[in-house]
Amino acid sequence: MKTFIFPVHALSYEKMIEKAEEGLMPNFKKLMENGSYGTSKSVFSTASAVDYVSLLTGCTPASHGIDDFQTNTVQGSIFGRDPEEYGMRRVPPENLDNTRLYTSNDVEVPWVWEVMDKHKSVQLGIFSPATYPAPDLPKDGIWVSGYWNKPQLLKNNERASNNENVRSELLEEYENYPITPSLAIPPSYPENCSTELEYLERKLEVDIEMSEKIQEARFEIFKKEDWDIFLTEEFFCDNIQHLLWPRSKENPFHSSTDEKIREKDLLGQFYRHIDEVLGMYMEELSEDTNIVVISAHGQEESNTEDGMHEQFEKLFEYGIWKGPKKWYFKKEKPSYCPPSRAEHNKNGAYIVSGPDFAENGVSRPISCMDFTPLMLEIYDYEKPEHLDGMVPKHLLK
């Protein structure tokens, strides 16, 4: 029995339903009609680096040890989360030299694929520094990291993959395959755009182009490898929603650009792309394959002016971002990108469909950390004592 897993970074339950009903996501809708779907709740925070580790270990941050993108962050967190509120264990550093990205060596519990030692897993890309360096997996399982600081490109970093043949095959398909898509800024990135809308449309085009190249390279691995579990993340949904979620007229920061984004349905164009990626894989899957679509957190409309401006300014201020202090939309402040129109929230989404799953339609929410016990249940593994998540039995036949 095989399981195909498609994590979509920051997939919004609200937008998934909306765009499926509009006819932009026929593959998603097919799975929803033949399975169960609902809200996937993040754990404690809405930081991708934390919630993805919870998803793939079945544990809270207190158990798995990853509480942000980096350790010992100044003032608790660059994203404004309060360690006391979320039970995090961070100790503020005495100086910035104590700050570093988390790595896979900091994860204090086994990954789900390490527990499932009788099955071969292939995991290609998860947006957390805790996925680097790539760990060894049972049954010659394959792991390609989805986040690292420097170097950004897979061709410059052997430790981002635990399989040199797979690494070479990915590079054969896409020479500039990025480890961290959001930080690997390609030469074709928009510069000197005359309007915000022009920048956003070009940004959408560039992100879809890079997403296609990444997924086409992974698709070759998908076809060549003999796997039991295959996971490929769609990263760019998070980036695109930050910039292209149209703010409502009631929002104090609503602008004419928001109206143009809505008129052109720029966000819908990207959701259609996500559906096409999923469809590419579904065409190759047999009917007896389980399919899981999931996000570790969601997004919602932002009612602040700062958004990404504020976030990146803190990265620079605290010395965590080491890249050039330069962004690509030149308006009033050349060092800034356009404002974030959406911010993270706890309401991600999930869809499960296949021989092991019930056809419930709309179903009860689950926690993202329930994914690991769900996989262990499907493949008949005993549940380790360290798990914090629970098996969502209402999703099973």
- Estimate what percentage of residues fall within beta strands: 5-15%
**Uncertain ranges:** 73-96, 185-190, 307-336
Rg result: 20 Å
In the CATH scheme, the class would be Alpha Beta
Q: Oligomerization state of this entry?
A: single chain
The gist of it:
33% of the residues lie in helices and 12% in strands. It has helices spanning 13-21, 26-33, 48-57, 61-64, 83-86, 112-115, 164-173, 196-224, 237-244, 256-264, 266-282, 308-317, 371-378; strands spanning 2-7, 35-41, 121-124, 142-144, 229-232, 289-294, 298-301, 342-345, 347-353, 361-362, 366-367. The strands form two sheets. Strands 1, 2, 3, 4, 5, 6, 9, 10 and 11 form a nine-stranded mixed β-sheet that branches. It has a two-stranded antiparallel sheet with strand order 7-8.
Topology of helices and strands:
Layout: E1 2-7, H1 13-21, H2 26-33, E2 35-41, H3 48-57, H4 61-64, H5 83-86, H6 112-115, E3 121-124, E4 142-144, H7 164-173, H8 196-224, E5 229-232, H9 237-244, H10 256-264, H11 266-282, E6 289-294, E7 298-301, H12 308-317, E8 342-345, E9 347-353, E10 361-362, E11 366-367, H13 371-378
Parallel strand pairs: 1-5, 1-6, 2-10, 2-11, 3-4, 3-5
Antiparallel strand pairs: 2-9, 6-9, 7-8
Helix pairs in contact: 7-8, 8-11, 9-11
